[in-house]
Amino acid sequence: MKSMATISFYLYLLMAPLLSCALATNLQARDGGSHRPAQVHKVQVGGPNIFAYTPSFVFAKPGDIILFDFLQLNHTLTQSSFKEPCTPLPGGIDSGFKPNPMGVRGLQTFELKVPPGDDPLWFFCRQGRHCSDLGMVFAINPNVEKDFTTFFARAKGLIP
Predict the structure, then answer these.
(1) Gap between the Cα atoms of 56 and 32, Å rounded
(2) Cα–chain-centroid distance for residue 60?
(3) Which one in 9, 75, 121, 145 has a CA-CA gap of 20 to 30 Å to 88?
(4) What CA–CA distance (Å, rounded) separates 67 from 46?
């Protein structure tokens, strides 16, 4: 007859994988599933006769990557605020100018890792008057209180 310790050991071997799965599922449910791999969101910047970020906004989770592919002609991704769309945010993100006159895909890129939190992030192109005249703006996680339409209208000076 097997000892109680031996039986307990075999039960542990049988139950360990099940307990491990249950614990992982519980942790994932508690933190909203944040243990998922980061997603990559692709955004085209400019293009032939295009003065826009395409798409104009994305919904992303902290840790996700936004991959900006800069095409014609020469643009930036510069962080701003909701109230002042065409003014650089002090200490904010700035890709610098990314010249690509021939529009070669993948030649000029910029990766942005979405920071922790769920506040919207606002950006514009600081090339000439691309923001104020053409409304070249971009957002990450716009919401009901701070929506993309209002941000775009402020950039073009249509509303205060």
Answers:
(1) 26
(2) 5
(3) 145
(4) 14
